[in-house]
Amino acid sequence: MSVVATVTTVETGHAHPSVNRPNLTSVGTIIWLSSELMFFAALFAMYFTLRSVTGADFWAEKASALNFPFSATNTTILVLSSLTCQLGVFAAERGDVKKLRTWFIITFVMGAIFIGGQVFEYTELVKHEGLSSRRTPTAPCST
User: Fold this and answer.
1) What is the per-residue pLDDT for 133?
2) Residues 6 or more apart whose Cβ sits within 8 Å of residue 128
3) Strand, helix or coil at 37?
4) Within 13 Å, how many C-alpha atoms sit on residue 132's CB side?
5) What's the alpha-carbon Rg for the chain, to the nearest Å?
6) What pTM was computed for the model?
7) Of 49, 73, 84, 120, which is the most exposed, with the fewest CB atoms less than 10 Å away?
8) What pLDDT, on a 0 to 100 scale, did the predictor assign at position 12?
9) What is the dihedral of CA 99, 100, 103, 109, to 10 degrees?
10) Residue 58 contacts residue 70 (beta carbons within 8 Å)
11) What pLDDT is attached to residue 30?
12) Start-end of H helices in the chain
């Protein structure tokens, strides 16, 4: 007696088909940037509306209360802290933990200086200039 074995192959395809999905980090970044765009668009819309309602004299009078050199220095510190943070990321990608920590400590110090500068600047505006969030600019009377 002879036994004959037959082999049958069945094409089942892939067990898990590949799905082409976007990178979640990219999606999160786009959502975050969109929220920032909407936030700043609202701030600019508010600024332009107030500027059109109050007239140029109101803004010229209030501009003298601002300390432009201090604000420019504080903004420069903020922008440079982004640079030091990115240098820390580059150090992390190279595996250089010592430089990573150094750059992040510098970033932290610069951020603390910036926040301290903001607190100082707004405190000065409230104490010496009477700035308050309760005050609202009013349109000049046209009567």
Assistant:
1) 66
2) 65
3) helix
4) 5
5) 30
6) 0.62
7) 49
8) 62
9) -130
10) no
11) 96
12) 24-54, 56-63, 68-94, 97-129
